[in-house]
Structure prediction request, 535 residues.
Amino acid sequence: MTAVAKLLDDPADAVTDALRGLAAVHPELSVDLTQHVVSRGDERRPGKVGLVSGGGSGHEPLHAGFVGLGMLDAAACGAVFTSPVPDQVLAATKAASSGGGVVHIVKNYTGDVLNFQMAAELADDEDIEVETVLVDDDVAVTDSLYTAGRRGTGGTLFVEKVLGAAAEKGLAVAEVAALGRDVVSRSRSFGVALSPCTTPGSDQPGFDLPAGEMELGIGIHGEPGRRRVPVPATGVAREVARTAVAAIDEDLPLAHQDLLVLVNGMGGTPLLELQVLAADVVAELDARGARVARALVGNYVTSLEMAGAMVSVCTTTPELLELWDAPVRTPALRWGV
Amino acid sequence: MGRVNLDAATALAWLRAFAGLVDERAGELTDLDRPIGDSDHGVNLQRGMHAVVAAFEQEAPDTAGAVLTKAGSTLVSTVGGASGPLFGTLLRRTGKALDGGDLASALRAGLDGVVKLGGAQVGDATLVDALTPAVEALEAGRSPFEAAEAAAEGAASTEPLVARKGRASYLGERGVGHRDPGAESVVLLFTALEQVAA
Prediction:
């Protein structure tokens, strides 16, 4: 089998080279090419709670693209689809620490959980107080009592943005963490793949998806979904919107709620298609009596070149909306400044 | 065959043999990971074991316990994912318990560390399904060869199971019929032990 063509120089150096590019075009960031840690290069208020996230690479702009004023202080970038090791997370934690404690935002995947947990212990040895917020927003995993629990996916963006604003505002580490757990409890996601993705250096996609079929309930690591269904002849976006919103609504009733909505591309879907989907998602939410307070459409939490989309929602309050609207200045998310 | 006692040289040979087997079988381990995970188990473990061998070339510890402990720490620092912490903890805890004791009881301490960290039990379709019977075989005084066979049977037993831990758990029933790659790596660890302890 012929290797899939990728715009890389050396597949083995994909992460390092990508970070080199990030550093080249964002001189305001501090990029550690040895540890694969990206952190804010600007001055932070002493005592500000530090926000750290991280995970496997391949989900860009998550997480390194969300480092900056009003969002993350540092991100640890693992190998493609593989969580960073404890040393990397510790390095990110130190880079984010300005004396007020650090909050780890961790997506619920066994590898991420174990490595962040080990890093939190190492940070404790260095007298950095660490609180952990576990993101598990994926409603596709229904029987979470019998699995590793729901995955952390698109909802991670809501958590990172809201907590970033809360930390800038001066909340204490325990308050930031408590707010994070509240945002997680309000967030739900559901993803669909129209084609799989191939990790750099591999000659085969993560799963086979015959033409005419789509995977429902995918995660963000190129792993297969929960089930496979035929792609309808027409109204594909409508069908995806209906399926995703129904799955979310069944888990978290949406009627009369004000929502943050993310229509997230998986990396290989054009904005034109995502906008079609966004129209269908908003119509679907309207029909269920939910109100869209703010929405984002684009590639934010991706799986390399996978085609498909993920719908994420977060029920809001006026306080949460204020934090969402607060200024943010990062490579991938920027407003109010 | 009674207690298996390891000296530093045998422990080094064991891990080098394991690294060699991981090199040989990395593609196969990754193929096992493809249907249920994200197709990188072999590649990740290979990266870790290369780092372990490189660390020993720089400096080889002088007790078997220190050899395993160092190998474990190196895996934790290089592999990432779930395999790094789990295989790293297995070797590190085993190493810490080894000096002065026999291998079976040290491996029991390693197994306990893995179970404590990952929360998986026998039947959850993880490496614990291969590790547990292998450790029990050594504890019962059986040979490394028999321990490797017990690990292989344990790894095969993961095929009909619905995974409850790790990334394979997200597939539910769709994961049935696939062998857990972490369990298969445990088979390689005991196959390597059999090679050097023979």
About this structure: The helical segments of chain B are 8-33, 41-58, 64-78, 83-98, 103-118, 128-139, 144-156, 181-197. The first helix of chain B runs from residue 8 to 33.
